[in-house]
Amino acid sequence: MTAMATNTVDSVSGTRLRTVISMIGLSGVGVIAVIVALSNVIARAPAGAANVGASSLAPDASYAFGTDVLGRDVMSETVHALAVTFSNAVLAAIIAVIVGAVAGFAAARAPLRLGTVLRGISGVLGSVPVLLLAVVLVTLAGHEFVAIAAGLAASPAIFNRSFDRAMRLARSRHAEYARATGIPGLTLLRRDLVYEVQANFVNVTGRALASTTIVLATLSFLGFGTSPPHRDLGLMIAAARANYLDIWWPMLFPALALILLVLFARLSAALDEGEPP
Amino acid sequence: MWRDWLLRAAQFLGNLAGAAVLASLVATLSQPAHGFWPFLSAFAARLFAIVHGDFGLSAVTGMPAMAEAFSIFSITLQLLMWGAVVALLLGIPLGVFLSASRTLRAAAPLLQIIAAMPVFVAALALIWVAVRVLHWSGTTQESALSWTALTRSGGWNAALQAFALPVLTVGVAGAASVQLSLRRAAASAWSAPYRSGLRMMGLGALDIDLHFAFPEVLAALLRDLGEMALALISATAVAEWVFHRNGVAVLFLKSAALGDWNVIAAALFLFAVVTLLASFVGNAASQVMIPEDNP
């Protein structure tokens, strides 16, 4: 009895903690969204403006994040780059959630074993790392479609988890009862989808946002993402790489912005680690 | 029992066939095809060739694409294997530690705060620490060589320095996957209904953990081998790029930049085979450990 009471207390406090963590994450993502929306106001120099200050100035009172070798204000550049990364990552996450989570859930109830075929295809696509799949898609479609490519590349893993979860639900007792009482399959799917969205939408979207942000930044770092003059955080880090052992600030601040974005996205998912594959 | 094994083998072969179809599709999509039927015909021809081991010629070097990728596969495999060793050495103790008590299990997801750092940022941070703090030299130099070649060319110290950072980068990324898998399995074993029954039969917690929970956790860890391989391959691709190791991942990226689709298809196929093989071996070993644990 005491053990059961302890478990209940743990469960309640755990749920509260997760809610608090999720709220912190959502607030962080919200703040980043506001910074992105006001990027042109917050940044004192336009994107890519060279010779704003002297070359390679260390952070000080006049330039909080310093300047890079071309005399660009690192703070302004970081804000503009964050805007590019965030906008692309949000678009990619939306694609990943629709193509991955929603389609995966619906495919589990598809007739004529269509779902099993789709799961098989997705399983094969899932055996290739997301980053490499994204590189192939970017190379096929072009750099201007990098957000779509990242979203599609992240989809198979999300599809597989969503499909497997939906299959477990379809085999659950409530589904059996519903079928036995004559409730149509489509009505059952709609009902399960509503519950799924209510229970997991924020978590799945948060994890998709974190995942696509990392993929997009890495793509740019490797030279497959956004192209100059539109710089995102990955490209800024790649550009600063040449002499970051001496001039560290043009790399540190974009890296911190990237880490914060990924962190807040993960916190918004209440640090949910996903179900086992 | 035999039926299960046959099913698993058929599933593995089916997945391999799927990987071959994916490689053929990638190689065909890149070529201009006018209309659906010409595309289908080109795809069928390419698939037939790939099934027979012919991935075509590299557009850059003129060498057979698979031979070119395979000639440097050992560099990637070496990094992957050493990375896996580091991942296990770091991930298992971490996973065990974080599964040790209720408080630690609850706090374990906070580890994601550290995992928010993308692999390429972690690699660059490691280089910075190695050069600026530890005063290592040669960590970022062009080194297309393997460990053996580096040691042969002299300087064990230089070889160790040049090899340690990429291995550590891959290993840390893999450790995150290992500890997650271990914690999930431990959580499941911890809440298993048989525990209370065994306690009532007079078994101590250590006996239950050693004889019942441990094999279960190990089997679950083996089942997730495919996921771990994916994490390690991703990290290897980034580590090869950052540390200038000319392995298959760098070949893949360079081929993508140059539009050399036959090599892209060959490299993609190799990576898919590694993941599928890891997944198959892991599942089979897990099945051997706990035979009733059917898929």
Walk me through the structure:
The complex is a heterodimer of chains A (277) and B (295). Chain A is mostly helical and 277 residues long. Chain A contains ten helices and no strands. Chain A has one domain. The longest helix of chain A is centred in the last third of the chain and has 38 residues. The relative contact order of chain A is 0.15. Chain B has 295 residues and is mainly α. Chain B contains 14 helices and no strands. The radius of gyration of chain B is 23 Å and the shape is flat. Chains A and B meet through helix 1, helix 4, helix 5, helix 8 and helix 10 of A and helix 1, helix 6, helix 7, helix 9 and helix 12 of B.
Q: SSE layout and pairings?
A:
The complex is a heterodimer of chains A (277) and B (295).
Chain A: H1 2-37, H2 39-42, H3 74-107, H4 114-125, H5 130-141, H6 146-170, H7 173-180, H8 185-222, H9 233-240, H10 249-268
Helix pairs in contact in A: 1-3, 1-10, 3-6, 3-8, 3-9, 3-10, 4-6, 5-6, 6-8, 8-9, 8-10, 9-10
Chain B: H1 2-29, H2 36-51, H3 65-71, H4 73-98, H5 102-107, H6 112-115, H7 119-133, H8 147-152, H9 156-190, H10 194-200, H11 205-223, H12 225-242, H13 248-258, H14 261-289
Helix pairs in contact in B: 1-2, 1-14, 3-14, 4-9, 4-12, 7-9, 7-12, 9-11, 9-12, 11-14, 12-14, 13-14
